Model the fold of this input.
Amino acid sequence: MQKLYTGLAWTIAGAVVVQAAAIAFAFGGMLNLVSEGGVVDKALLESFQAAGVGEVGFLIHGVVGGILIPLIALVLLVVSFLVRVRGAKLWAAITFGLVVLQVVLGFSITDVPHLGLIHGANALAVVAAASIGALRVRRGSPAAADAGPAADEGATSDAVAA
Done:
């Protein structure tokens, strides 16, 4: 279960990188279109006729961020209850909470564009939380979860030393 947890957490972190690349590709394409005299308006976005301007980046960003990452985060949270490493549930819950916030922010950007600032920063928080969870579980051992505070101090000093 520890390997599954770690794999899921790293997958979330990697998917956020895909998100960043996809949205950069999409906006780069839009900027290219505008610099060549094109117009980006509601009709263009709804027609899906803007081939070659990075439009697929918006699709990738939406599918990965709106469906894939939330599902993986939910599975991570469920798996965390089967992992006997201290902190597994906490970091899975933090990751899941940040992913839920990320989805809400993403769908709210069209109404309140300034939320994009928080959306971008929160993406980094998702990567950090998923990575910390993966690292803690990978370094943890089942015995550390049952051994009490003395074992936790050793795990903490290892984490700080690294």
